[in-house]
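Hi support team,

I submitted a single chain yesterday and got back a structure, but I'm not sure I'm reading the token output correctly. Could someone confirm the output below corresponds to the sequence I sent? I've pasted both exactly as they appear in my results page.

Thanks,
R.
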Amino acid sequence: MIVVKTPLRISFLGGGTDFPDYYRNHGGLVLSTAIDKYIYVIVKQRFDNMIYVNYSRKEIVENVDEIQHELVRESMRITGVKRGVEITTLADVPSSGTGLGSSSTVTVGLLQALYSYSGKLVTAETLARNACEIEIDRCNKPIGVQDQFIAAYGGFRAISFEKDAVTVSKLGLNDELIRRLNRNMMLFYTNVTRPSESILVEQRENISEREDSLAGLRELAAQACDCLKNGDLSQFGDMLHSGWELKRGLASGVSNQNLDDLYNASRKAGAIGGKIAGAGGGGFLLLYAPLAAQDNVRNALSSLRELPFLFERDGSRVVFDLGRSK
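Hi R., thanks for writing in. Yes, this is the structure output for that exact sequence:
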């Protein structure tokens, strides 16, 4: 039996510039971090040759082609696992529509678990690129390519995108600065989940009309990297606000009146900046708020549930390996 633990993520700045339709012409940059909320994938050998898949549903099939869960099906095809397994996924937080990159996290975790079950060691880059192939090429999801890389690599990363290359870089931040930044971040569940596909489809279709905004987001991500290296956390909060102002114009569903009201209330209570995680439209509200203002922010958002979190150093990893009988 194999158990794999893969982190969810928060993207701070640059989201949208990781669409291939954009970065292949202009280059892209995203500032992102893994967090200590996870999706677990368990792969267990079965006595028979059946395939069991357990998630919000339960599937029992005889061959890979019959599996309805497309991420499981395509992960099995890529890794070469064909039969005689039981696959279970578990999540620390709601696993869809929350803006924390759950789809890519599940895919990376499935790949890691199935490769490990097969006795194969693969790199984080291989996991990320395989996950991109599954989600974008095979399943035709209208998404970018940042989530797969941060789930595979973990840590606090600048991820740059060029025509034929993705580069994942550490910022070299010291532990104390990372702790200070973490203490000033707050995450609230808006009580709304949403299918991100319609937002992302519109965002992708709008790329040619939003090139100035996307260039602004890319530049803000670069400036934020420098800002963090210089230890200027207050300015980082201002950049989050500027990024949100740009991002909410990328597609009509990114924000709405309710989300705007929540965000504005948090700013009046002392938060400096923030954003709706992921594609927008619901899910989690991320805020940069100095410690002295955080109680006021909590009172202003008393209808929402706060999710405390820490930045996660590691990417997808095997946490239990009982081996496979021959």
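A quick pointer for reading it: The radius of gyration is 20 Å. Let us know if anything else looks off.

Best,
Support desk
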